[in-house]
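Question (not urgent): is this output format expected?
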Amino acid sequence: MGANDPHFHEVKLVPPSHASAGLKSLTHLVQVWLQDAVDLLGRDEPRKPPDLIGDLVDKKLATESAGQAQMASDYGDKNTKLTELADKMTADDNGVRTKTYEAGQIANDTWTTIKGRIDHLQGILGDPKNNEMVQDPDSHKWYLPVSTETKLQTALLTCVTDVSDDLDTAWNKFQAYAQAMADANPESHGGSPAPPVDASGAPTGGPVTAEEISGGQKVTAKAIYDYLIDHYHLTPAQAAGIVGNMQTESSFNTGAWNSREGALGLCQWEGGRLTALKAYAKAHNQPITDMKTQVDFMMSEMHGGESQAWSALQSAGTPAAAAAAFDQYYERSAGTSRNQRMANATNLASQFATVAA
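Got this back:
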């Protein structure tokens, strides 16, 4: 990739001139991530960007609780780690930038939304009120107040979270579009005749419709966790085990759609189980992407045809054990991501226990 290769759209963030070294490094890291995210959006074969919030948490530069991220109090002392993350993203670019971008209307519409978020963020960073210094009475050095630094950190992380959600929605639309294109050429892809498509290219018939996908929402892990405990009286370990699996399956997006497998929702139901979910939602007069409807359907399965999963879940005494049981008996995945599901469950249980305390 040449240094002069064009971006899909240029992203530039400028921190306040009197920001701390840590805040300046964080601003640069977010800029690099946003640029990668925008460039990936513009590819003719779009891909999701790296999980920046997850990387910050893994390196103990940030914490995340109930879907909200905040920088660790000592993140400024770990400036090298922030720089390393930014350098790694740049090195891993792997030809993201291309001479021509052909992702079409979905990418352009999503860019319009993301650009609004970036402009809002830059407005916060460039606000003169957020560059007003105070003087240390002992050292006589000038610096930004802690409250201002915290405000700017929050604005940066919120932008990352919001753009991640925007990209999840776009990804689902891309997947639906890809399915429509595959079905349009059954000789090459072994599919059936193409279903009708809407203006964006998403299918209006078949396993899921564009309307069903667009109704999806990015929910918080805490909302699902609380619902499982409050409504179904699961133990914290059992609830965390389920939610840890959902994090891997769908990143908590109720409209997550995998066109290759024909899988939808928090638990990526497919085939007959997806058909059953649609029937369940219709019987309860709810959209298929409603969070509680999907969780209720999951629980109805475990008290019915998936009773083996329920028995295994009840025998699990830790979040990790619950995650392993749910993966093995309910999700029935290939098992390659089981350790990650178990780690998700353990981390979420720890976060929620801290919040409760």
